[in-house]
Amino acid sequence: MLTRPLATVAVLALLGSLTACGSEDDSTATDDPTTTASSDGGTGSFEPAPEGECAYPSDGNPAVEGVEPPSPDPTVEGEVEVSIATSAGQIDATLDAAATPCTVNSFVSLADQGYFDGTECHRLTIAPSTIFVLQCGDPTATGTGGPGYTIPDELSGEETYPAGTLAMAKTPYPDSGGSQFFMVYEDTPLPPNYTVFGTVDPEGVDVLRAIAEKGTANGGPDGPPTETVELESVTAG
C-alpha cells in the first residue's frame, strides 16, 4: 500500500497503500506505496472538525521546524492550478478543492510556506510491481517525514488510480496523511484508501514516465529513483 513508514513496517506497504503522517517511512514495499507512522504510534485517533472546517491535529514530529498548520477554514475552492518544478522536468497539475477541500487546503498551505522546495522524491515503484508511482513530499527523503500534523481522509470509496492521478500517501491508519503524496504514471490497482486530490497533466505524466524508465537506485521494483528527483519549487494558485 502507499503509505508513510510506520518505522519499517508501514514502509513495506508502499505499493498497496500510499500513506502519510507525521513520520512517513517506506522500506521495501512491492505492492503499495506507504509511509511510516508518526511518533505517537500512528494509531489514527482523530476528532472530526465541525462541519465546514478541517481538523489538523498535531503529531508532535515535524520534519521541518517552523511549519504552520493550515487554517481549519479552507481558504481555497474549486480548481487550483499547481506548478511543480523538478530537476527532471516540469510537472503541472490541477487540484480539486471542491471534492477534497481539507487536503488541498493543506497542500497549498505547505506550498506557500516553501515546505516542498528543495526536497527529494524518495520512492519510485516500477515493474514487476503492479504499482507505478513516484512518491514525494518528505523533506527527510526517508519516507518518515511529515509536517507535524495529520490531515483527514477525504474518500468516496470509489477512488481509482489511473495514470495522472495525484493522491495522498498515509500510514495504514485512517486520517493519517501529512505531506507525502504520490503521482501515478501508469494505471495502478490500489484499494480506495488514498485521497485523490488532483490530476497531473499529460506532459507531467511523460516526465514521470521518463523518470521511471531510468529505474531505481537499488535495481529493484521499489526504491529511490536512479537519478535524484528534486522538487525545486511548488507553486499553487
Automatic annotation (TrEMBL):
<comment type="function">
    <text>PPIases accelerate the folding of proteins. It catalyzes the cis-trans isomerization of proline imidic peptide bonds in oligopeptides.</text>
</comment>
<dbReference type="Pfam" id="PF00160">
    <property type="entry name" value="Pro_isomerase"/>
</dbReference>
<dbReference type="InterPro" id="IPR044666">
    <property type="entry name" value="Cyclophilin_A-like"/>
</dbReference>
<dbReference type="GO" id="GO:0003755">
    <property type="term" value="F:peptidyl-prolyl cis-trans isomerase activity"/>
</dbReference>
<feature type="region of interest" description="Disordered">
    <location>
        <begin position="21"/>
        <end position="77"/>
    </location>
</feature>
<feature type="region of interest" description="Disordered">
    <location>
        <begin position="214"/>
        <end position="237"/>
    </location>
</feature>
<feature type="domain" description="PPIase cyclophilin-type">
    <location>
        <begin position="86"/>
        <end position="236"/>
    </location>
</feature>
<dbReference type="InterPro" id="IPR029000">
    <property type="entry name" value="Cyclophilin-like_dom_sf"/>
</dbReference>
<feature type="signal peptide">
    <location>
        <begin position="1"/>
        <end position="22"/>
    </location>
</feature>
<keyword id="KW-0413">Isomerase</keyword>
<feature type="compositionally biased region" description="Low complexity">
    <location>
        <begin position="30"/>
        <end position="40"/>
    </location>
</feature>
<dbReference type="InterPro" id="IPR002130">
    <property type="entry name" value="Cyclophilin-type_PPIase_dom"/>
</dbReference>
<keyword id="KW-0732">Signal</keyword>
<protein>
    <submittedName>
        <fullName>Peptidyl-prolyl cis-trans isomerase B (Cyclophilin B)</fullName>
        <ecNumber>5.2.1.8</ecNumber>
    </submittedName>
</protein>
